[in-house]
Amino acid sequence: MKNVAMVMTIQDPASQRLTWNKPPLSVLVIKKVQDVSVIQPFIDLLSWLIFEKRMVVFVEASVLDDVQLKNNTYFNPVRDKLCTFKEGKDDLTDKIDFIICLGGDGTLLYASSLFQQSVPPVMAFHMGSLGFLAPFEFANFQGQVTSVLEGHVALTLRSRLRCIVVRKNSDSLDKKSHSGVLVLNEVVVDRGPSPYLSNIDLFLDGKHITTVQGDGLIVSTPTGSTAYAVAAGASMIHPSVPAIMVTPICPHSLSFRPIVVPAGVELKIMVSPDARSTAWVSFDGRHQQELKVGDSLKVTMSIYPVPSICAQDQISDWFDSLAECLHWNVRRKQRQFDEYSDLVHSSSNYTIDSHDRQMKIDS
Q1: Of 102, 131, 158, which residue constitutes the final position of a domain?
Q2: What average pLDDT does the chain have?
Q3: Any alpha helices (H) in the chain, and if so which ranges?
């Protein structure tokens, strides 16, 4: 093209790698709650980080009140050396160099919710029921964490959605989402406990696109495309693709299919004026609140993604998760042609022989 400014630059996801400007000194460790199997790995990891790596380790304050940890003699030498925080009260900005999650995908979603701006790199160990977002196995945690501390590991930048609730006849934003709630998977607008179909108007950059009649609507990131959205019939999108997915929930129309829109647009969702009931909105399954007629939800792509550390690379990790967690394209292999031919040939001979015997009996 003659105009160089019009040339599109396409970034190779493999170019996204973690390199430390200075050695990391602090780490936030998040464990899955109410899971006995995580207790000992959690203690082993804390002890190794504190006594072997000499790092400052943060945990949530409620962890110290865990009965299973209180009664564990191996936890006592670690307890007094931990730094704690409380969700919603303490600001972790600029205090954490990177995050380690022990559990399922819920631990990564929780880690994301703790940082409403820049997020430290996240290393997630699969110890939960799904683990789609957690590519690391805990068996060799020392070697894997050491590799991360040394840097030069692959990253997947998982985009987040910025969601703002604006109330009717009010110039101010909803108190709970004054600066916007950031979600990693999806924001869901549904009919809640109402027996009636939801009636939701959808706008794209100020233009009315459609009215959703059904159980509701899912607005998801590419990361969230393999969560609630795929269960509702959406396609799966690699997390490095800059896009927003809009998926209806049980639409009362055979032609309403999920759509993918550019990451730079603004979505506005409102309860239709002629709706029979209100709607309810939730953010990554949390902070559910009611949307009344005239209220609106604005959704844009956040400038603060979640840097997720890869066990291998961006492509291998994702396809491995598809195969292992969702059993994507898992089926019995088709028989080779020669085996199938032999089978048909044997079957044909058997049929002919049987027919011959039947003819002899009849004669």
Answers
A1: 158
A2: 88
A3: 39-47, 67-70, 76-79, 105-113, 141-150, 228-231, 314-325, 337-362
Q: What is the pLDDT of residues 75-108, one digit of tens each?
A: 988 998 999 999 888 889 889 999 999 998 999 9
Set 66, 105, 295, 317: catalytic member: 105
Residue 82 contacts residue 60 (beta carbons within 8 Å): no
Residue 120 and residue 196 in one domain? no
Between the alpha carbon of residue 223 and those of residues 64, 86, 103, 183, 343, the distances in Å are 32, 27, 18, 10, 45
Q: Are residues 166 and 298 in the same domain?
A: yes
Q: Is 105 a catalytic residue?
A: yes
**Residues 63 and 85 grouped into a single domain:** yes
Only one residue has tokens 């028989």, namely 335
The residue type found at 203 is: F
What is the span of the domain harbouring residue 198?
161-304
**pLDDT by residue (tens digit) across 314-345?**
999 999 999 999 999 988 888 888 765 655 55
